[in-house]
């Protein structure tokens, strides 16, 4: 059964052929890579990257789709394993204290049953044994004024999308913020600006996939 079909096989998330054809970016090993440049002039981050290229009608899109809309946690764990294995190839992602999944709004997480970025973190943790801290960063409900504002203006107020609880847990810690897909970087930027209020030693960012724009 080929993974390009609508349903993924039960035992393995994708077949060996598809795995061997995954579009790896090598960003995690490259200083000043495309993902790091996204944040230049917006928020100061440590080494960052994305493991795979995200393209339409690709196996990467299928994995993300399965994870977000088909309740397929195995797709998320696999993306986490892929991130972890690429992290191992670089010395730029060592000594991380906590994985921080980019949060969903509570209502959305309840509907989906889980936060997909937390599942990806579980996959990373299975390989690298880094603890996941999910009780600090929260996504706020959109306020009425926020929803009424235009997209651009909302972007400028993006540091108000998230809030922190238990900030002392992150003080002087080295954090790796984890997202599923990075496109404009607006969400990650906002989350990082919020995390900085907890005064961590360092924030790094990694996504499973980077969207070519
Ligand atoms: Zn396949």
Furnish the topology, listing elements before pairings:
Elements lengths: L15 H5 L13 H6 L8 E7 L4 H11 L3 H16 L9 E4 L4 H7 L3 H13 L8 E3 L4 H5 L2 H6 L5 E3 L9 E9 L3 H10 L6 E10 L2
The structure holds zinc ion.
CATH second-level architecture:
3-Layer(aba) Sandwich
Number of helices: 9
Give the ligands present. zinc ion
Helical coverage, percent range: 25-40%
Gap between N and C termini: 31 Å
Order of strands across the biggest sheet? 1-6-5-2
Large-scale geometry: globular
Secondary-structure-based class equals alpha/beta
The total beta strand count reads 6
Strand content: 15-25%
Main sheet specs: 4 strands, parallel
Domain module count: 1
Could you walk me through the main structural features you see in this protein, from its secondary elements to its overall organization?
A four-stranded parallel sheet has the order 1-6-5-2, with helices on both faces. Strands 3-4 form a two-stranded antiparallel sheet. α9 links the parallel β5 and β6. α3 packs across α4 and α4 packs across α6. By secondary structure, the protein is α/β, with parallel strands linked by helices. The model has no long low-confidence stretch (mean pLDDT about 90). Bound molecules: zinc ion. The site of zinc ion (ZN) has 6 residues, from α1.
């Amino acid at each position: 059964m080929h993974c390009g079909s609508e349903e993924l096989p039960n035992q393995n998330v994708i077949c060996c052929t598809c795995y061997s054809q995954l579009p790896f970016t090598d960003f995690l090993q490259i200083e000043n890579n495309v993902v790091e440049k996204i944040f230049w002039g917006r928020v100061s981050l440590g080494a960052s990257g994305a493991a795979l290229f995200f393209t339409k009608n690709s196996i990467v899109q299928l994995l993300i789709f399965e994870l977000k809309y088909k309740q397929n946690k195995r797709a998320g764990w696999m993306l986490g394993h892929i991130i972890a294995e690429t992290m191992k190839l670089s010395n730029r992602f060592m000594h991380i204290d906590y994985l921080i999944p980019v949060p969903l709004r509570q209502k959305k997480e309840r509907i989906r049953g889980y936060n997909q970025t937390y599942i990806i973190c579980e996959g990373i943790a299975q390989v690298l044994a880094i603890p996941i801290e999910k009780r600090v960063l929260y996504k706020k409900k959109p306020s009425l004024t926020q929803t009424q504002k235009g997209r651009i203006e909302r972007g400028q107020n993006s540091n108000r999308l998230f809030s922190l609880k238990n900030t002392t847990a992150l003080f002087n810690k080295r954090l790796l913020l984890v997202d599923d897909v990075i496109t404009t970087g607006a969400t990650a930027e906002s989350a990082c600006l919020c995390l900085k209020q907890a005064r961590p030693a360092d924030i790094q960012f990694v996504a499973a996939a980077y969207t070519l724009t």
